[in-house]
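Input sequence (295 aa), recorded before submission:
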Amino acid sequence: MSVSLDDIGARITDGAQLTGEDARALSSTYDIVSLGMMADEVRRRRHGRQTTFLRVAEVPVDAPMTDITSWPAAASEIRLVGRVADLEQARALVASLASRTGGTVSGFSLGDIALACDGDASRVEQWLRTLGAAGLATIAEAPIDLLSDPIAMVRAAEAAGVPAARITVDAHGTDGVLATIERLQPLVSAGLVSTVAPLPRRPTAEPTTGYTDVKAVALARILLDVPHVQVDWSLHGPKLAQVALTFGADDVDNVSPLDEIAEGRRRAPLEEIRRNIRAASLDPVERDARFAVLE
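Predicted structure, token format:
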């Protein structure tokens, strides 16, 4: 006899561990409302109504550093975005930014670094030690589906003192969202994950209805025992981010640090993120790159 959502919901309420059969039932259900309610219960049990957000100033790696003299003071993190050609280019970029800010400098993808190092964990660690000495605090992304040996790569980053800020997903494969969750589980079991961003970073050719996206968020919250399930404000947009908060997400990454725009302060990103979080019946709390509360 197949497991019912009511049975799974009861186990979630009791704090019981879910089984593989439970996971498959949740993944295959079309009852997205019930799935969202379960995820929201798990999320509120861990975080209550608090929903954190991080304001980030992005700096493209191909931007001339001489042209970048400042960024909004409200940015808690300065993030290098893009792929670098070699270690020396990456080191120079990090050092240039770190010398001009008291904030946290992050950047790059662990997948790109692993590729540049031919998948050699010891070389990855050496790269990251060099970048850490230049001022890099965290790796911005660690795409679970692009790392041939995720545990070795994430451990190399930890050993170098430049941990991955979040475990990301480049794209859900043809085997679906549950397969992605299952790839993440060994990292969770090894205690190497504090933040998961389960929405794909690479847009699909076809427009999405958001159904698969919110299902991915809900499954990550229910099936992965991690503190933070995160959605990217800049990448995925305010509407999807807001809905994701009602499906288990508790943190919003990459909010613009601009306090004023041409349309006025009420339309500025800070007020918009606060409104959207409150509209989801949650409490907005700004944080820094280390999850310390700022307000």
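Checked by second reader. The chain has one domain: 31-286.
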